[in-house]
């Protein structure tokens, strides 16, 4: 009888421990807002054209906070530069901060980094697009354009919209600092030991650092030198 009672106590303790661990896992996400509010500067509305999201739909994702990983449905709000995730029947906000390592969703990985952008130093989410001797990342851009009275060519009102801008690219050499890519000349200048080879290759291949595939092509060429 004592043995059976001890067994039941052990099972109960194990269940309580598992529940506690599950609660701890769900608590690893730094919740910034208890619930997402939608408005005309970052939410969705029927009278706003376009979308602030990388994908309007939530997809199963993984959030890495330190050494912990939490699986939750997520979607990335480009305009606000935050993730929205679903947990406990609510839609919550995950703003970029130093405790977050990265967020994975499908074949995309967004890392949380501190970087210089538009004259400000801040934490933000950057898409990881290539790794090697040089790590290449991109910053998605969405601008909000308010509704304009008599703004259309025919004199009618022009509706508010989200407008996708060109990606802004960043790179890191080894473990060095993250740097924005302004133009081809300044990028090549940051590789003093291989400037001539890169210059000739970029000229031959007609490389544009504003195009993701061509930028990756150039950086992978550098890795072979």
Written overview of the protein:
This protein is of the alpha+beta class and 225 residues long. It folds into 2 domains: 28-180, no CATH class; 182-225, no CATH class. The protein contains 4 helices and 10 strands. The protein has helices at residues 2-26, 184-189, 195-205, 212-224, and strands at 59-65, 68-77, 82-87, 90-94, 100-105, 108-117, 120-130, 134-145, 161-173, 179-180. Strands 4-3-2-1-5-6-7-8-9-10 form a 10-stranded antiparallel sheet. A hairpin with a 2-residue loop joins strand 1 (59-65) and strand 2. The longest helix is centred in the N-terminal third of the chain and has 25 residues, at 2-26. The N and C termini lie far apart (74 Å). The relative contact order is 0.11.
Architecture blueprint of SSEs:
Elements: H1 2-26, E1 59-65, E2 68-77, E3 82-87, E4 90-94, E5 100-105, E6 108-117, E7 120-130, E8 134-145, E9 161-173, E10 179-180, H2 184-189, H3 195-205, H4 212-224
Antiparallel strand pairs: 1-2, 1-5, 2-3, 3-4, 5-6, 6-7, 7-8, 8-9, 9-10
Question: Could you say which overall geometry the principal axes of the C-alpha atoms support?
Answer: globular
Low-confidence stretches: 1-28
The sequence of SSEs as H and E is: HEEEEEEEEEEHHH
Strand order of the largest sheet: 4-3-2-1-5-6-7-8-9-10
Structural class: alpha+beta
CA-atom Rg in angstroms:
23 Å
What is the count of structural domains?
A: 2
- Determine the mean pLDDT: 82
Largest sheet report: 10 strands, antiparallel
Helix content: 10-25%
Strand content: 35-45%
Number of strands: 10
Number of helices, counting only DSSP H or I runs of 4 residues or more? 4
Distance between the termini: 74 Å
